[in-house]
């Protein structure tokens, strides 16, 4: 999940766009019953929001 968060933050720090998250190899499906842990997803989102907020503060200081 940390890798996903790092990639999302890096993506947000560029020009943005569309990020599609899904099956990577096109040769096999994910394991049956695989689920994304909503708690981890929410924590990742909260971390992103905090980082974004702090980055904005720092940018305003420098302008």
What does this structure look like?
It is a single chain. The chain has helices at 2-12, 38-62. The model has no long low-confidence stretch (mean pLDDT 77). The chain is mainly α and 63 residues long. The protein has one domain (2-21, 36-62). α1 packs parallel to α2. The chain contains two helices and no strands. The longest helix has 25 residues, at 38-62.
Provide keyphrases for this structure.
63 residues; elongated; single chain; mainly alpha; 0% strand
Radius of gyration, in angstroms, nearest whole number: 15 Å
Looking at the structure, what is the overall shape? elongated
Number of strands: 0
Straight-line distance between termini: 34 Å
Oligomer: single chain
Mean pLDDT: 77
Percentage beta strand: under 5%
Helix and strand arrangement:
Blueprint: H1 2-12, H2 38-62
Summarize the structure.
It contains two helices and no strands. The chain is mostly helical. The longest helix has 25 residues.
